[in-house]
Design brief:
By secondary structure, this protein is α+β, with helices and mostly antiparallel strands. About 40% of the residues lie in helices and about 20% in strands. The chain has helices at about 5-20, 70-75, 110-135, 140, 155-165; strands at about 25-30, 30-35, 40-50, 55-65, 90-95, 105-110. Strands 1, 2, 3, 4, 5 and 6 form a 6-stranded antiparallel beta sheet that branches. The longest helix has 24 residues, at about 110-135. It is elongated, with a radius of gyration of 18 Å.
Length: about 170
């Protein structure tokens, strides 16, 4: 069992976030909260930085959405589902929800900072995070919001999904 200050700070931050997200239908596994919403899975992930130490916790929060329907367009017959963070079809950092839209990392060196950071993150999730996830509450909502990169994966996903909606069968 990890008893470093870092591990204790994580517990405090996660507890503050859990108190906010669990009543909204999220389940927790390690540092990731998940809920089914419509036909998609929504994620809130607390990511610790690789520059964290035993005494200092640096973290940010990621939001993501996964659609099994989009997965089946990309990977017909795949029955694995969402196997990892990179399988999500839409991802963003919590910093994109702030007024200055800058990536946000919290640096925590004591329990008070952990409590304050956990409260700040929970408040930001309530103020803006749930609204952003609500925009991605179904595959129908999700696909038009998948960022398009010409010639890339996302363009093929959107093209294939739209073709499927029109009754055309094309491979992404």
């Amino acid at each position: 069992m990890d008893t470093t200050p870092n591990a204790n700070y994580r517990k405090v931050v996660i507890a503050r976030i859990a108190a906010t997200l669990k009543p909204l239908g999220f389940r927790r596994k390690a540092m990731t909260f998940t809920r089914a919403q419509g036909d998609v899975l929504q994620f809130v992930n607390v990511q610790a930085s690789t520059s964290s130490t035993a005494d200092i916790l640096k973290l940010t929060v990621n939001l993501a959405v996964y659609s099994e329907e989009v997965n089946q367009i990309l990977n017909p017959g795949d029955d694995i589902g969402c196997g990892g963070w990179l399988d999500n079809h839409w991802r963003d950092r919590i910093g994109s929800l702030t007024d200055d839209r800058q990536d946000v990392w919290w640096t925590i060196t004591n329990t008070t900072e952990a409590e304050n950071s956990g409260n700040e993150i929970a408040a930001l999730l309530v103020k803006s995070g749930m609204d952003v996830l609500a925009l991605h509450s179904s595959t129908l909502d999700l696909v038009p919001r998948i960022p398009i990169r010409p010639g890339g994966y996302n363009e093929r996903v959107v093209e294939a999904w739209l073709a499927k909606q029109d009754g055309r069968d094309i491979s992404p």
